[in-house]
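Human:
Focus on the backbone:
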Amino acid sequence: MKTLISIGFFLCFMGAFSYNNPERDTLNIAEYLKHADGDKIYPSAKQMEMLKKVMPNDAYKAAPQITDRAYWDAMAATSSGKVYLNKAMSLLDEKPEVPISDEIYRRANKEGNRGIYKPRYYRTMDRLEHFILAECLENKGRFLPQINTYVQAIMDMKSWLHPNHDDNNNGVLEGKRVTIDLGARKFGGVLAIAESLLGNSLSQAMRTEIKKQLQWRITDSYLKSCKLNDKNNTWIKSTSNWNSVCTSGSVLVTIINSKSAEERLAAVGSSINSMKYYISGFGDDGYCSEGLGYWGYGFNHYLYLAQMLSDYTEGKINLFSFDNPEKLKRIGNFPEHFEIQNGTCAPFADGVSHTESSGSNFAEMLSSKHYGAIKPSEIRMEEAVEQIIAWNNPELFSVNNESETQKSELNGHTYFDDFGMVISRGKQKVPFSIAIKAGHNAENHNHSDVGTYILILDEDFMSGDIGAPSYTAGSFSKDNKARSSWGHPVPRINNTLQSNGREFEGKITETIFENNSDKVVMDMKAAYELPMLKSLTRTMVNDKSGTGTISVQDYFAASEPVTFGTAIMTYTKYEIIDNHTVILTSKSQKVKAEVAGIGGQIKIKDEQVPVKSLREGGTAYRIGIDFEKPIKEGSIVIKYTPVLGNI
């Protein structure tokens, strides 16, 4: 064991020396991107020549084969290895839950019903991953029968797609086309790891069939789309999490499984061209319009692609810096800056409302290493690739046992000045805070929500953005009232909602940040297709003195009289006292909303949000505040004040 540790230390030392050696060839990603073949993702001839200088000739090995007992016995002796093995043993009697029937597949496709298949998919893949690594750790053959059963079950699936990602005619299920989605890339990755690590522990017939299926289901489909920009894998140019997730899986499969050095070069080269689009989806300020949950999912897979390519090329391909290290650093630190208070965050778009999660924190771990982000106090892995990377790079995955001392107090405000989003944090004993954004209506997972906001009193969501509808049929429709501006605390003018597209945006025109008060002014006129509208501004003031007061004022001017109204959105219990007062009562807190109209008389009318299933749970309400008659100019002011004391 001492010899093994000494060798490991020597290799780490040599790796560190090599990494800092300026004489070695490294890929200049900025220069590489300049040589792309127009808008093609597939690398150009010049890019291929650049890749040949930094890429090895051999296929990628995520870890040594099971026969390398020095490596696997060392992993088995670690605390994480013991935990992993115990988890696998607890799953040993479970049967695979795929293939699903064609009937369930078609029903899920038609209804958008994820609950009838998705848990089955991911439980199956999670168990198989545990069986594979556990067999490598233990080497007793105990897990091989289940591995064979699970692998065969996956290969018997007609489609590896999430059914709701197939076309309306179920073309992939029917064998008319091949495409890759979030599920297919994972099925492919699990089988690639199985064949690579277990080697001759599997029959030759099974190994041959695995490699055959990986080639046509993943590699051929991926590289064809990269060459032709076809309609099968349009995510290769996406700015959303789909790009990083599906790209990382496709590359993993190809560089492990493909016998062709040219295909391996092309897959890696395509991924670099593709990641240009993914990174462009973040603001220059690091803002992730998809929200914190999708930051974790998407950036997690970007970073494991980065680590995989770094390991594969001995650091010669560095996606951790890409062509813009400062932007990557801001992206890596997004979670801390996005927190409002007490673990809460804005559920804008399809985002989550709390920072804590039971899912993987792989992205946080690597961000702490590469971008100086706060180091987590625990390690949570979801995929076998993540666990293997952690075993191969233990220096990257040490936890912070004193996380509270590392975490600094949140600033009084955060301003994402590129996307136009402000968090104004109260500093009272019971803090009263607001997150408010301008943005535009072509953001990823967009909700047509220019001007939306969320109010937090202590840990309770009192008013504002109600978050996402659950993913069922119709949930992504622009007419879904939880996704359109109808279901957001923003104006409705002449019964017209905000329009969808990049040009329909808000602009923050003024900010004042002081110890006891923050002010934000945004121009929202461009979010509406109304030619008679001359001006529309929203002004937020957070008066942090005393118990706090947050006011939101909408001013408009038009060339002719228009109907005008806005809304208080809430999940809380509420009482409409009169046309000027609403009391909002959550589980632990109470807020008074005082409403005033300038330029005309106002009225209040409440109604339930008619969406059956909302991510945040419970029932949401729209408390509409409207001028009684059309007017050419006016303002509506909503002033929120905490009501402290027993509820």
